[in-house]
Amino acid sequence: MKAPLPAALCAALLLLSAPATAQTATPAPAPFPATPPKLIVAISVDQFSADLFAQYRNHYTGGLARLLTGGVFPSGYQSHAATETCPGHSTILTGYRPANTGIIANNWIDQRVGRPDKTVYCSEDESVAGSDHNSYTVSDIHLKVPTLGERMKAADPRSRVVSIAGKDRAAVMMGGHKVDELWWWDGKTYVSYAGRAVPPVVQRTRDAVAALLAQPQAALPLPGWCKPLDQPITVGDQTLGQGRFERAAGDAKGFRASPASDAAVLAMAAGLVQDMKLGAGPAADIIAVGLSATDYIGHSRGTQGTEMCIQMDQLDQALAGFFAVLDATGVDYEVMLTADHGAHDMTERQQQRAMPMEAHIDPQVQAKALGAAIGRDLTLAGPVLLGSEGDVYLSSDLPARERPRVLAEALRRYRAMPQVAGAYDAKEIAATPMPGGAPETWTLPQKARASYDAQRSGDLLVFLKPRVTTIEVPGPGYVETHGSPWDYDRRVPILFWRKGMTGFEQPLSVETVDIMPTLAATIGLKVGGQDGRCLDLDPGPADTCAR
After folding, report:
1. Which of 85, 94, 147, 303 is the catalytic position?
2. Crossing angle of helices 293-301/259-276, nearest 10°?
3. What's the pTM value of the predicted model, to 2 decimals?
4. pLDDT one-digit tens code per residue, 354-386
5. Distance between CA atoms of residues 244 and 254, nearest Å
6. Hey, CA dihedral for 134, 139, 141, 145, is it positive or negative?
7. Residue 294 annotated as catalytic
8. How many percent of the chain have pLDDT more than 70?
9. Is 233 helix (H, G, I), strand (E, B) or coil?
10. pLDDT of residue 547
11. What is the chain's alpha carbon radius of gyration, rounded to the nearest angstrom?
């Protein structure tokens, strides 16, 4: 008989209003357990910056409070320059930076593809006829390296690999090429690759979410410690900052950008652990869980209003329910939680809060505008530059003799712009050694090198100055973003927890590429060749990396 959706998570999904409960005192734990865990639970909270973690860590009483009793690395780094969702997720369970994963951005330009805008999405198969980067077939073909789950399967084919997320790119990049179950929210329901059977727990989650969407959502309660943030902010035609996640019946976008979205993903993940009996087989299993609501809330409402404060509270409680279900299975599991990138608050609120230098990008900085100006001044016909975020490409229509002249002129003009911190051509970045050492000390070219792939990166890379956002004009659903090479976008927490481990905190910087070898060591899996290093999770004389 199949178990229903776990009661603790159904409550989080359908009610989203459970009061916080106090943590009970426990005896001091022993050092990190010597036996390998049977289940790895790898969680990514999209846009969960180190700054957001620091702001709210004293208010956590649920799942995040539990993780604070484990190994805490509050200054983890997505150390590369392209701090976007797809590159960030590609580092977490591969141990490689985007220069090696091949995932340089959410989107890049490939002028060989047969589509008008030449844009390729990171988790698509662009060879599918009739597709474009907004309407695509999800695929793992662009990920160039294996994930931890793939390495586990190679060592023992009996290992099961599951990946569940609110975004396809999160599920694909953490799951990899060989997964037993892989599901994501497509804007309407939870889907997977074509032809895959729908497990009963996925169907139950679909039905529960459909029932939830059929009803309006009343305002969620505001925790008392959120009240200082209950202040309006005007952004264009919107007034934000005081939202409580009220939602009309049928509002799928509102659901996506709300705590209910994360609760549903956690409910499905918990159900798959139960139904598949993950962690109960002869080999270690892994489940990756991508929680996307924090990112959607940040983009649409910013990080410093009641919306994000409620999200932090609800995320904490939903994780508590998830861990309670895992506890009940009796499985020896290990948790890792991190983020794919950081972010900082919307320009308008920052300007009001002692940051008058915050600014929106000047439209003339955009590749299309600059290319048009260069083409006009150099009397060149047709397109000159194509851009995708910080990657700028010379048009393949340019005559070969004109390419050096256009590249030099583009670099000259970019470097003269007051909002630009640096502009580099591909040869300069390719010649930069792959960086090492403390990531907070890296130069702009070094950060760019960690993201650079000669097959996919631009002919030049352009970086805006700190606190200049790539949003020209904010609008509904898009008032704040990330993607810069600055530490507010690079820094994320990295948390490890396992029952019986001795907790500690290491404030010095580490990288998200360190996660894969760290987890591999705890299950006795030998790995090598990756960019990251193993982090010793035993604060005493023992060394989890030496097993």
Report:
1. 85
2. 170
3. 0.94
4. 999 999 999 999 999 999 999 999 999 989 999
5. 11
6. positive
7. no
8. 95
9. strand
10. 82
11. 23
